Amino acid sequence: MNRALAALTACAILVPAACDSGTGKSGGAVETRVYRCESGDQLEVKYLIPAQGPAAATMTYGNKLISMHQEPAASGVLFVADKGFPDYRWHTKGRSGTLVLHRSGNGEGEVLLGECTAP
């Protein structure tokens, strides 16, 4: 699973057109959104939306490239960071998002970037 996600992340970041499965069709879409947050920070998120299955996302925050996979959410879309940065959560609803850091044993988490919106 991690290898498949790494391949999807590489497709999203590097060369989407080169990630053809040999069928002549792309396996999904890559969408980049730039969010402006209440703190004045800007966050660029690249989403890989496959034709089937859950989406993946990548972002750079705090000089770290964070790859994420989609998890079930009560509402909106929840992305959870992969191995290496497992405590990061990116929760979106429509064009708004919040980046939260969940430390081990801490149920609530610390909001790192709140009220982020993309045009």
UniProtKB/TrEMBL annotation:
Alphabetized Pfam families for the sequence: MliC
Gene3D superfamilies: 2.40.128.200
Keyword set, alphabetical order: Lipoprotein, Membrane, Palmitate, Signal
Isomerase keyword on record: no
InterPro entries recorded: MliC (IPR018660), MliC_sf (IPR036328)
Taxonomic superkingdom: Bacteria
Start and end residues of each C-type lysozyme inhibitor domain: 35-104
Name of the protein in question: Membrane-bound lysozyme-inhibitor of c-type lysozyme
The organism of origin for this protein: Microbulbifer yueqingensis
